[in-house]
Structures
1.
Amino acid sequence: MKSKLFMEKTERIKTGTGKWVTIVPDHSGNYTLYEDNDYLGCILFDSAENWIYDGEKLCVMEQEEIAGFITGHTKEMHDLLKSLDQNAVINPL
């Protein structure tokens, strides 16, 4: 579930890659993303609270971080990213 406190105001977060991303909510529950004045895409939600990134400038880890921040599941997203990172070290491609 998306954070109700977040629904009405613009927020700015720093991703693990060092990007400062401005997250701008719209009235439909979707979020437009910017770094400075550079458009990064949108995080879109469906009625079941599933999200998808509509853009090409963020890596999967950044997308997960931002979605976790929006939904309020930051700890869960952090744990998921940490496990994925460990998995990559154990099973490199």
2.
Amino acid sequence: MKIERLIVGGVALLVGLLLGWMGRGLATYNVHAAQIATYDDWRVACPAADAKDASCELSSDLVDRNQPNSTALARMSITTDKDGKQIVGFTLPFGVALEAGMGLRIGKEPVKVYQYRTCNQVGCIAVTPFDNNLQTALKGADDASVMFAGLDGKPQGVPVSFKGYQKSVGAWHAAEQRRHSWFWRLFS
């Protein structure tokens, strides 16, 4: 009889703790606040959950650390477009040879060339689907470079850092789920 009461009491305590923790997740999730988290060289930036047409973005500034006073030369961003498809975008500086496009080399694979879509006040942008092949290639990579040609025709390569990439991808997926579903907010 005492053991049964102890078991029932223990189960009731665990259920109460779980419900309290889940209730805290719902109660403390601010749907009106944007969130930014940094994972080494990668960032996850999410607009407020009440901004229904926006998506979280996973990004990294691409820096040539071999140059003195290293500054960001390019940016790699992964997000979801308005049709719900995941895309990766590359923002490169002005002064690139537009006709040549830009390239992405992952590991020992050949360079994949992507054409620029547009240039705006931020820079010149190339976009490609973030499909399963690209996701798998980046997940298993420890070496990648974004390549482009300047107006002088000289090729340049900027390394992609994978420091914090795996952790940031998981955080990006989780943040996107929390933005669109109250159920996932229970576990935040």
3.
Amino acid sequence: MARIIVAGGTGLLGSSLVGALQNDRHTVAVLTRQPTRDNEVRWAPHDEDGSWTSALKGAHAVINLAGASIAGGRWTMARKAAIHDSRMQATGALVRAITAMQQPSPIFISSSAVGYYGSRGDEPATETTPAGSDFLAHVCRDWEAAANQLAGTSRVVLLRSGVVLARHGGALPQMALPFKLFAGGPAGTGRQFMSWIHVHDWVGMVKWALATQDVAGPLNVTAPGPVTNEEFSRTLGRALSRPSWLRAPSFALRLVLGEMADALLLGGQRVLPEVAERRGFVFRYPTLESALRDIYA
């Protein structure tokens, strides 16, 4: 069994992954700003001579999930700087610490997102599709470039994750709340695509990437069945036994959320997991219907 480091491992994705790795009998250490458990190590990315760097010694893999939430508040200039800089600071600190080791970790898996592709309408996006030009695309492009500095030292995998669906945590509870209040429905035209993945498949794909030696570079961590926002709304409504007809107008979303509305709700990406499917990854929940049925069973 291997020793694995997870940076930023206390949120939905991190805690789900850490639990699964521990169930597989790996030894897992979590780098976090506020440790509360025995396997957690206090992490201050700006302190590159800190004691946290010693936790990396002997690690088979380092998994970087750190970064400020993109939905944590209206995108002011200060908020956008925090989103960008939190990712660059954390990734840069890990890269420099691994590079300085006598025996660097052979695997570095680092977060990114489908926001890399920008808003592309109904154009399918695979791992070879070029980056977009909006704010999130710029963040993801810089984030991946920082991680790729280890490409000559470690096997680098870049997780371009879609919307991860789980009953508790992540985006789904916020999406489901209007439906539970009988006020759910599509955002804007509803024609924009949503690329999603069940949390169990997200964890499964990260574990698969750890174990599959020829997987390197960008990896679309999305289900093979992206759907339009309208279809997502209908399917979520059925799963919750609620109507899904109350459309949220684009102008109202922009008024409330500003630039974030176009990036997170009104724009979209039709992302396909080409690398995972070509190399044999098997999804437990390939359709939105099956994913939501499991989550709300």
4.
Amino acid sequence: MIRRTALLIGFAIAGTIGCGDSKKPTVPEVVSKPAVVVAPAIPDAGTVVIAPYIYSYNPLGKRDPFRSMVDDRIATTTDSPCKEPLCQWDLDQYTLVGVITGDANPVAMVEDPMGRGYVIRRNTRMGKQGGKVTQILRDAVTVSEHWTAPDGKDHVNPINLRLKPDKSFAPVVDLSSGKQY
């Protein structure tokens, strides 16, 4: 505590001594002279005329200084054609939880590995390859992924996500005959 007080007093004394009355330097007056314009001489056959250099900025190939470098790094690391939340996992990592059919627009629900559920319809994009849901059946969902072969041909890869069978499902019993289905 005593050292801190001594330091503060020392800085206060040094500040008052250093801020003593000092004379400001005088600025010499500049006398402006009228500009002399010299007409360019006609060059002889042996003289070389050098044009003055005019600078021009070319932003081509340079980074925009107003964009975030973090956003640029994220954009270069993700080469996925799809930017939706369902496109962050591979198709085999999703589990089909439920399907609602019997309507003109069937709906299904998938669950990602983190346990979050998503409602999907036809033409919903999902999977890291940017596949589209093309068909929703009562027990499966078909996702079609498009890829281009080295020869330039476009190929379709249909992938089916199936409902897992319910283990606690009780078999149907015909009450008149006693048969289990």
